[in-house]
Specification:
Layout lengths: L2 H13 L4 H6 L2 H26 L8 H23 L2 H9 L4 H8 L2 H13 L6 H23 L5 H21 L4 H20 L3 H22 L2 H8 L2 H27 L2 H7 L2 H11 L10 H34 L1
C-alpha cells in the first residue's frame, strides 16, 4: 500500500469521525498533519500489539517467535513491494552498489537490527519487558547524545536538563539494584547506531528493512530445520499458528510502513514527541497483560527518567512554536 493509498483510506475514515468541520475547513497542510498523526498513533498501537504477540504463541519460545516473525515479515514485505510495483525500484538501488566495500558498509547495521527485533519478541515473555520498554524511553535521549558527540550538534538548556535527569535516573537505578538491565542498555545503546549508520549510508527505511530481512531469511530457515524442528512441526500442523504467524508478518510490515509514512508527513519534532506513545504502551503492557515485575523502588529512578523525557518534549514544543511563528511572520 502506497502513501497515497494510505492517505486516501485515512481521508475517508477521518471524514466519518466527529471532526468533519475541522477536516473540511483545514488546509492541505493541516490535513496532512492530521493524517500523519493518525498514522503515528496507528503504528505505535500496532507495535504495542506486536510486543504482546509472543504471549499468544505459547509454547513457542521468544526466540522461535522472533525467527517466525522475521520470515513472516520478509514474505509480507516482498509480497507488498511486488503487489505495489515497488520491488524493482529497491532492487535497482541495491544493484547500484558496485563494490564489496559498499556492500559491507550496507550490511554493517544488520546485526543490530536483528538483535533488537529478537529482544523485542524475547523480552516480554522472559521477565525483561519493563526493562526493554525503558530502553525505548531512553532511545530518543541517547539520539540527542549521539547527535552531540558524533555530529557536533549543540544542545539547548532543555535538552541538557533532559539528558541530566535521564542520567540521574539511570544512576539511581544502578545504585538501587547494584546493576542495570542489559536489555535497557542494549536498546538505548545500540539502536541509535543503527539509525545513524542508515542515515550516513543514505539508505531508505524500506530498502534497509528489505536487505536486513533477506540476509537473515536463510539463517532463519536453517534454524527451524536443524535446531527447532519441533517448532516447524507444531506450526505446520496447526491452522491457528499458521494464521497467527501470517498476522504477525502483516502487522509487522503495516506497523513499519505506517511509521515511515508518519515520519514523512509530520514535522520532526511532532514525530519525535509522538514516538513516546510506543514505549508508554510497551511499559503498560509489560506490567499488566504480560505480568512482568515492577518494584516500588523503581518509581524514583524511572520518575527521574520520565522527567527528562518531559524536558525533551518541552524542547520539541518550543521548537515547533518557534517554527510556526517564523512561518506566520514570513506569510505576513
Amino acid at each position: 500500500m502506497s502513501t497515497s493509498t494510505l492517505s486516501g483510506a485515512l481521508h475517508a475514515t477521518l471524514s466519518r469521525l466527529p471532526m468533519p468541520a475541522v477536516w473540511a475547513s483545514g488546509s492541505a497542510q493541516e490535513r496532512t498533519l492530521m493524517m500523519g498523526a493518525a498514522l503515528a498513533i496507528l503504528s505505535n498501537v500496532l507495535f504495542g500489539v506486536l510486543y504482546a504477540y509472543s504471549s499468544f504463541l505459547a509454547p513457542l519460545s521468544g526466540t522461535q517467535v522472533f525467527i517466525w516473525r522475521m520470515l513472516a515479515m520478509w514474505a509480507a514485505l516482498v509480497g507488498f513491494l511486488t503487489f505495489s510495483g515497488q520491488l524493482t525500484g529497491h532492487i535497482d538501488k541495491l544493484k547500484s552498489l558496485g563494490s564489496l566495500k559498499q556492500w559491507a558498509w550496507l550490511l554493517l547495521p544488520t546485526p543490530i537490527f536483528l538483535s533488537q527485533f529478537w529482544l523485542f519478541m524475547w523480552a516480554p515473555v522472559n521477565g525483561q519487558g519493563v526493562q526493554t520498554a525503558m530502553g525505548y524511553f531512553l532511545f530518543p535521549l541517547m539520539m540527542v547524545v549521539f547527535g552531540c558527540v558524533l555530529f557536533g550538534e549543540k544542545l539547548s538548556r532543555l535538552q541538557w536538563l533532559a539528558v541530566g535527569f535521564a542520567a540521574l535516573g539511570v544512576g539511581s537505578e544502578i545504585i538501587r539494584t547494584q546493576s542495570i538491565s542489559w536489555a535497557t542498555l542494549w536498546v538505548c545503546g545500540t539502536y541509535p547506531l543503527y539509525y545513524i549508520l542508515r542515515r550516513l549510508q543514505g539508505v531508505g527505511a524500506v530498502t534497509g528493512l528489505l536487505v536486513d530481512l533477506t540476509i537473515f531469511a536463510p539463517f532463519a530457515l536453517g534454524y527451524l530445520f536443524f535446531m527447532a524442528p519441533d517448532s516447524l512441526s507444531l506450526v505446520g500442523g496447526s491452522g491457528f499458528f499458521i494464521m497467527m504467524l501470517i498476522g504477525l508478518g502483516v502487522l509487522s510490515v503495516l506497523a513499519m510502513k505506517t511509521n515511515v509514512d508518519a515520519s514523512q508527513m509530520l514535522p520532526v519534532n511532532v514525530y519525535g514527541m509522538m514516538s513516546y506513545l510506543e514505549p508508554a504502551l510497551l511499559f503498560i503492557l509489560a506490567i499488566t497483560i504480560l505480568g512482568n515485575p515492577f518494584e516500588s523502588g523503581m518509581l524514583f529512578s524511572y520518575g527521574l527518567i520520565w522527567t527528562g523525557i518531559a524536558f525533551l518534549i518541552a524542547h520539541g514544543v518550543k521548537q515547533l512554536r518557534a517554527t510556526k511563528r517564523k512561518q506566520v511572520a514570513a506569510s505576513a
